[in-house]
């Protein structure tokens, strides 16, 4: 899984559904998204077969995404099957957290290594404003429960916007002071409805957090192999992370690819669907043929995004984040 720019691609995000029980303003339109028919969505059996191919080619870390993956029936069984695949060393899941509490025991038993929980505010009214749903307390309770499992790595994902309050930033960062988790601040990317919002730069967030809690010290060990840079702070149990694709472009170190719920291999988030693995899969072809298609797709992975200096706009992704795997 070495691409044309000599990057080692060992991490895949697999979307199991385009459906979600929330409707976040930067992810879904107010009047709702049009969902794919069930026949167009990869079955769990097809996902597992593709995972075997990915693993043989060098993928070691699988992140299960959506939409919201916990709305999918038998998601716990899928986690268990992935964990048993030869070559897959780590299986994690990203979720909005609203359904996490009821699934946690089963996910832990299935061997889930980590969970990323989306949370952009600590105010229930603001949460309802962003997500168009009233379930802040379910999410917060799930976070409190998740950190009780020592074997589970817990990360909070926050996407600050121009109107995100300083108190929310400070409060969210403060979760890592008293809890065994990482709070990551992610710069909004101009994809889908994200184009309508201004991202908050890492430097602005760092200045606010440093002023509130003290100097940050870089943590050299990676927490999951992704693009975040992590820091410790005085008196903090957990850590603070930044994923800054806009202000600190990290494409030269990108080690990941994506599989959409309808079976397309995406090698860069900015560009449209990519390689149609589902069609190859459903033609009853051999694993060798599948692996050849995957390898070709990987080799052609772009050198990076071009959000600041647009190139090839006719190939830009037009779908919402929920449709391509957030």
UniProtKB/TrEMBL annotation:
Residue positions annotated to bind [4Fe-4S] cluster 1 are 20, 24, 27
> Signal sequence: where?
none
Per UniProt, subunit arrangement is: Monomer and homodimer.
What catalytic activity is recorded?
Answer: GTP + AH2 + S-adenosyl-L-methionine = (8S)-3',8-cyclo-7,8-dihydroguanosine 5'-triphosphate + 5'-deoxyadenosine + L-methionine + A + H(+)
- In its UniProt entry, what is this protein called? GTP 3',8-cyclase
**Where do the annotations place GTP binding?**
13, 94, 155, 256-258
User: Record-annotated residues binding S-adenosyl-L-methionine?
Assistant: 26, 67, 118, 189
Segments forming domain Radical SAM core: 4-220
Q: According to its UniProt record, in which pathway does this protein act?
A: Cofactor biosynthesis; molybdopterin biosynthesis
Read off the SMART domains from this record.
Elp3
Query: What taxonomic lineage is listed for the species of origin?
Result: Bacteria, Bacillati, Bacillota, Clostridia, Lachnospirales
Query: CDD domains this protein is in?
Result: Radical_SAM, Twitch_MoaA
């Amino acid at each position: 899984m070495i691409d044309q720019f000599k990057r080692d691609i060992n991490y895949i995000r697999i979307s199991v559904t385009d459906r979600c029980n929330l409707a976040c303003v930067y992810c879904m339109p107010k009047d709702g998204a049009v969902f794919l028919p069930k026949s167009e969505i990869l079955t769990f059996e097809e996902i597992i077969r593709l995972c075997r191919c990915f693993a043989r080619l060098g993928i070691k870390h699988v992140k299960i995404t959506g939409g919201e993956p916990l709305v999918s029936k038998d998601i716990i069984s899928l986690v268990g099957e992935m964990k048993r695949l030869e070559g897959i060393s780590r299986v994690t899941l990203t979720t909005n957290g609203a359904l996490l509490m009821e699934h946690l025991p089963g996910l832990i038993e299935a061997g889930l290594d980590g969970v990323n929980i989306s949370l952009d505010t600590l105010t229930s009214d603001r949460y309802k404003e962003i997500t168009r749903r009233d379930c802040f307390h379910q999410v917060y309770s799930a976070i409190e429960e998740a950190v009780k499992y020592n074997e589970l790595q817990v990360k909070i994902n926050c996407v600050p916007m121009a109107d995100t309050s300083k108190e929310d930033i400070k409060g969210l960062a403060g979760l890592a002071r008293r809890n065994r988790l990482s709070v990551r601040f992610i710069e909004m990317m101009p994809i889908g409805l994200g184009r309508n919002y201004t991202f908050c730069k890492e430097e602005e967030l760092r200045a606010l957090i440093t002023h509130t809690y003290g100097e940050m010290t870089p943590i050299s060990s990676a927490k999951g192999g992704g693009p975040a840079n992590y820091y410790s702070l005085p008196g903090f149990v957990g850590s603070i992370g930044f994923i800054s694709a806009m202000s600190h472009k990290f494409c030269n170190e990108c080690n990941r690819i994506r599989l959409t719920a309808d079976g397309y291999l995406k090698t860069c988030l900015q560009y449209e669907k990519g390689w149609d693995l589902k069609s190859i899969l459903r033609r009853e072809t051999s694993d060798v043929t599948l692996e050849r298609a995957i390898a070709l797709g990987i080799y052609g992975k772009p050198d990076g995004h071009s959000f600041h200096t647009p190139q090839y706009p006719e190939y830009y992704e037009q779908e919402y984040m929920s449709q391509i795997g957030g």
